[in-house]
Amino acid sequence: MRIEAAEMKLITLPLRFRFETSFGVQTERHIIVLTLYGEGLEGYAETVMEHTPHYREETIAGAWALLEELLIPQVLGKDIANPEALWAHIRNFRGNKMTKAALEMAFWDLWCKSLGQPLWKVLGGVREEIPVGISLGIEPSIEATVEKVGKGLEQGYKRIKLKIKPGWDVKMLMAVREAYPDANLTVDANSAYTLNHVATFKAMDAAGLDYIEQPLAFDDILDHAKLQAAISTSICLDESITSPEDARKALEIGAGRVINLKPARVGGILASRKIHDITESYGLPVWMGGMLEAGIGRAANIHVATLPMFVKPGDTSSASRYWEEDIIEEALEASGGMMAVPQAPGLGVTPKREFIDRLALKSAYVASS
User: Fold this and answer.
1) d(CA 119, CA 125)
2) Does the annotation mark 352 as catalytic?
3) Could you tell me which residues are beta bridge partners of residue 161?
4) How far apart are CA 133 and CA 188, in angstroms?
5) Which of 9, 151, 218, 241 gets the highest tally of CB atoms within 10 A of its CB?
6) How far apart are CA 278 and CA 281, in angstroms?
7) How confident is the model at residue 306 (pLDDT cuts 50, 70, 90)?
């Protein structure tokens, strides 16, 4: 594939609801929509970082500059055989994995379209629909939380994830468990706790959770291993895993028993497949996380989640839960807790160009000479 040009558009997409986590409150998403052009085809991607570095270190401003000034010029005009070859042009630049992942996603879409195959088949996926759950933010009251959990279960979602923070954890969880004794429940702490909270996590063991996600520091695995040894509930690692090497080391020392795999966080789809294979060698599961993606990123996540070890419900729930209008033509909607995998070549989705143009705060177009 020869990459002939690239286009970026920065958009703001309002959420349908107020989403609160231990990081703070979010009411909209800021997204760079990236298009690569080559040989009469178009490959699409979207970014996941925000204006501020709360989740990981990257920001929208940094990603825009890096893509426009460095990463895209590295691949323009080049004949690139496959996604592995793409990395030969950008691997020497350190960090910035979410930004690199966007470039790689767009190339995967472009390349799979040139093969006439959907991404999931090229990756070696094994299913044409995937189980999905929902993630609920911190609500104003326990009663509101119980009500939202009930609605999610009524809609058929196969797992309910609840955001927690110190002071909003055990009491709320026990109320939800009492109301729904058979529900598949998990929690996500987004690094809000320390080892000083071991007693809190021991109390959570009584809630019958499938796992506790990223309870400790975003860049830690050692303390997670200590916590895992002290509690019976499985720990799921999220922010701590940014590469296949991180995954191997974490599983080797017993820092957790589950990995939340977000392709953008680990550097893209190739790295995701490697992490999947590492977890498979340990006989441990992964599941597909979410970064409040719009349709392009959501579609990419759905394709990756067809790999064999994605046995737990992921965060790729119906797009209509998040957006009044998505940025793609296709409707990514779950039914009975299952999400169908797009079957058209590449990511299998089509951007709404006019809608994206109306939302665009700025744009850039770069072509090879």
Assistant:
1) 9
2) no
3) 135, 186
4) 13
5) 241
6) 5
7) very high
pLDDT band, very low/low/confident/very high, at 27 (cuts 50, 70, 90): confident
Backbone φ and ψ of 35, nearest 5°: -125, 130
Taking alpha carbons only, the member of 8, 50, 15, 9 closest to residue 294 is 15
The token pair that represents 45 in the structure block: 């991607």
CA distance 162 to 338: 20
Token pair belonging to 33: 């929509």
pTM for this structure?
0.94
Please identify which of the residues 262, 274, 352, 362 carries the catalytic annotation. Answer: 262
Residues 6+ apart with CB under 8 A from 281: none
Q: Which of 97, 83, 98, 95 is nearest to 36 (CA)?
A: 83
Is 305 in contact with 334 (CB distance < 8 Å)?
no
Q: Whose CA is closest to 176, among 145, 209, 208, 212?
A: 145
Tell me which of 78, 163, 249, 274 is the catalytic residue: 163
State residue 340 phi and psi, 5-degree precision.
-70, 145
| Cα separations in angstroms, 102 against 21, 34, 36, 137 | 24, 7, 11, 26
Q: Which two tokens stand for residue 229?
A: 């040894």
* Cα Rg, the chain, nearest whole Å: 20
- Catalytic site residue 262? yes
Question: Residue 267 corresponds to which tokens in the numbers above?
Answer: 């550097």
Structure tokens at 360: 């665009």
